[in-house]
Design brief:
single chain; about 280 residues; alpha+beta; Lipovitellin-phosvitin complex, beta-sheet shell regions; 13-stranded antiparallel β-sheet; 13 strands; about 15% helix; globular
């Protein structure tokens, strides 16, 4: 999926620089480093009315602590940003469940409460009043996760680029601490690390690749008759156009271990959830 620009440049040099290959290679490498691998474009793209549309797909695979499959859930939604005023919009959000590991998902149930759901990405989206139109069903959690995951992708893509150096791990300062998740639970980051790992090519755009990881995060959730408590690790990559600063592709992976208590059940149980998430442009 990724093509290293350095290999492409090296191929051009070998073809066209027959007379002085070593001289040309050195000159082109230096120019390449100076142009693309020294600094990243800082800041986010302007909200100028040029709309950017994406499809987010998240698959949650549930297992017991021994890795035995117990069920899976697929959540999809169409995300639009770039509106003047800075707000974002969701449409066509579907949730599908399955008890079969091998069979494909059905289309699922459309989450009508998310149709044309509009907001400005900010800290206010961690408050309960932001979700006053949401139902109390468990699908509410998956819908919120779409919003929070997309906010995370955008923060990692744009907010720290002036601090990133090629192949140098950057630890986001002052991130450690517990925060409330819109009154449904609590989350506590141990640390978030970012790393600019190089240049790639995606959607006909030359892109910077930003890697992120956050390990040993504590999470507690209470919704309806279910309480959970455990830890989550997540990591991923985002491809950002060097020309437009727009997100071209993103992926997130996570692993969560939780102790689950269900009202009416005498015993708690431990569950593991693997999440695989991708953000793709809609053409």
């Amino acid at each position: 999926m990724k093509k290293k620009l350095m290999l492409a440049v090296a191929g051009i040099i070998m073809f066209s620089g027959i007379i002085s290959p070593y001289y040309c290679l050195g000159q082109n490498q230096k120019a390449l480093v100076c142009k693309y691998l020294t600094t990243l474009p800082s800041g986010k793209p302007e909200d100028d009315g040029m709309l950017q549309k994406y499809r987010m797909t998240a698959v949650y695979t549930n297992m017991d602590i021994y890795g035995n499959f117990t069920g899976k859930t697929k959540v999809t939604g169409d995300y639009t940003r770039g509106f003047k005023g800075g707000y974002s919009l969701w449409n066509n959000v579907f949730v599908s469940d399955s008890k079969s590991k091998a069979e494909p998902f059905s289309e699922g149930k459309k989450q009508d409460f998310m149709e044309n759901f509009k907001y400005i990405p900010s800290d206010s989206m961690m408050k309960e009043e932001a979700f006053k139109s949401f139902p109390t069903a468990i699908d509410n959690i998956f819908a919120r996760n779409l919003i929070w995951d997309m906010m995370g992708v955008e923060i990692f893509a744009w907010h720290y680029n002036d601090s990133l150096k090629l192949n140098k791990v950057f630890v986001i300062p002052n991130v450690k601490g517990e925060f409330a998740m819109a009154e449904i639970g609590k989350y506590n980051h141990e640390s978030i690390q970012l790393c600019w790992t190089g240049i790639s090519f995606m959607n006909n755009e030359l892109c910077a690749v930003i890697e992120y990881r956050a390990l040993n995060n504590k999470v507690e959730i209470t919704t309806g008759n279910i309480k959970t408590k455990g830890t989550e690790q997540y990591w991923g990559n985002t491809w950002i156009s060097l020309k437009s600063k727009q997100i071209e592709f993103a992926q997130i992976f996570s692993s969560t271990f939780q102790e689950i208590e269900v009202q009416g059940m005498s015993n708690k149980f431990i569950a593991k959830t693997i999440r695989e998430l991708k953000v793709e442009r809609i053409k």
